[in-house]
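User: C-alpha cells for this complex, please. No commentary.
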Amino acid sequence: MQYDKFNQNELNCAAFKSRLDALLDSRRRPQLDLQLCTHARRCEPCARVLAAQTKLLEAVQTPTRLEVRPDFAVQVLQSIEVQQQQQRRSRRRAISFVAVAASLFIVVTAWRVPNRTEDLSESDLANSPKIPPAVLQRMDEVSQDIKPVSGSVYTALNAIWLAQRLL
Amino acid sequence: MADEVRGLVQRSLAGDQTAMLALVDCYQGQVFGLCYRMLGQRQDAEDMAQETFVRALRSLKQWDSTREFLPWLLAIAGNRCRTCLAQRMRRPSTTSLVESLADRQPDAGRARHLAEEVQQALGRLREEYRLVFLLFHEQELSYAEIGAALNCPLGTVKTWVHRARRELIEMLRKREIVGEVSHAVRQV
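Assistant:
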C-alpha cells in the first residue's frame, strides 16, 4: 500500500483495484479514467496491473481469425439426422424386446399353469387345506373381471409383435 | 435480431431445415470461438461446437423465448466444453493443450505471441473462471445473462470474473508477458 504518499483526493491501492474492477465490469476503458491514471502514475505496481489488464483484454477481444469449415452447418444437420435414426432404431429394438419378453412370459405361464395342476395327485388335492366357499366365489368374480383385460393385453402384445415384424 | 431469431427457432421447431441452417450460420462463429478458447484445440473445438448445435436444435423447445438465445446457446457450449475437458483429464494425451495459431494468422509478431500466451494462460485457469471470463469479456454477455444461463448467482459470476482477471494477469506476469508499464499510462 502506498497510500501515505498521496493526498486525500487520490486513490489508494485497494481503491484503485476496486475502481479498476468496477470500470471493467461496466465495459469502460480504464486507461481513460483520470483517477486511475493519476494513481498509476505514482504507483508502479498498480501501473503494471493497469497496463496488464489493458493488454489482456485487448488480446481477448481481438478476433482469432479461426473459422469453422464451410460445411459446418450441413454437418450439424446430418449428425442430427443420424442421431434421430439411431434413436428410432433403438426404440424399435426396445419395443421388440418387450414384445418378445411379454410373449415368452405368456407362453411360459400358459404352459406352466395346466402342468402344475396335472402334477398334483388326488391325495395331494384331498390333503390340501380347504378354501372357504366365499373366497372361491370371490376368486371366480375376480377372474371374470380380469379375463377381458388380460385378453386385451394379450391381443395388444400380439399386435405390437406383429407391427414389429412388419416394420 | 431477436425477433428474427425467434422466427428461425419457430421454423426450426416446425422442422424447417433451412431455418436450422440459418440458425447455425448465425451463431457458429461465437460458439466455435468460445469452444476454441475453452479447449485450445481446433479439432476438439469443432467437435464441441457441432455437439452444441446438435443439442440445441434437438432441445429448442426448452429455450425460454422471453430470454436471449445466445446466452442459452453459449451455456450449452460451455457445458459441452467442460465435459470434453473432463474426458481429456481422464485419458492421457500426447498433444499439446494449446495449438499454435502461427499458420493461421498471417500477421506474425507480438500480437500473435500475446494471443498465444493468453490462450495458454486461459488453459491453466479453473474451468468455471475461464468460462465466465470468456462469456463476459469475449462474448460480451452481461453478468445477469451469464448467471441465468449457467444457473449461478450473480455475485458468484462476478467474483469468478474478477478472480479470472487477476489470475490471468499473474500468470502473464510470471511469464514476463505483461511486466512493463504501458507508455499510454505514463503519458496521462
